[in-house]
């Protein structure tokens, strides 16, 4: 499904999804909420993170748990713990854009080289998977330039063959390169996906959409 949020095509900046939940900002139009729920086929939770609508930038995780930044408000953290039946761990770090630094499915996680060994341990415990550090296509913000589900993975078009091979071994899913929103390599910023579906930025071309569907194993 193609749509925009807050007047932009960067839908992934505002949303986080796993195979059970979709976390979105409050006050989205009812039509947009129903479109997202239809695309991803999960329960929708409306909130803010650190008072911001940029939920996809601030949190990361899988179906076992999520990690949230140190700047999260107490009332937001309490709300998530009440609404979500999974591990929720606050990462006390100067790095708050965890969505840009963590790439995870239910089998593994890769985290940015910017994160410390102790932060890696917290993330591993929260998500219940082995964590490896890495970069992709020369970028340390690996969570911004790749999307992974339990069915497939898409990464920045400049990722090398060795990197693609490593990702297949780590995440145990097919891996391919792609763009979103008419040529943007910021895949996770431009879309939100789980094993059931995806919501893509409205600028995504028909060719990109078809490639994304095929690579992530999405059927309509």
Characterize the structure shown.
With 220 residues, this protein is an alpha/beta fold. The chain has one domain (2-215): L-arginine/glycine Amidinotransferase, Chain A (5-stranded Propeller). It is 30% helix and 24% strand. It contains eight helices and 15 strands. It has helices spanning 30-40, 55-58, 74-83, 98-101, 117-127, 161-171, 187-190, 206-215, and strands at 2-3, 16-17, 21-25, 43-47, 60-61, 65-69, 87-91, 102-104, 109-112, 131-134, 146-148, 153-155, 175-177, 191-193, 198-201. It has a three-stranded mixed β-sheet with strand order 1-15-14. Strands 2-3-4 form a three-stranded mixed β-sheet, sandwiched between helices. A three-stranded mixed β-sheet has the order 5-6-7, sandwiched between helices. Strand 8 and strand 9 form a beta hairpin. The termini are close together. The model has no long low-confidence stretch (mean pLDDT 96).
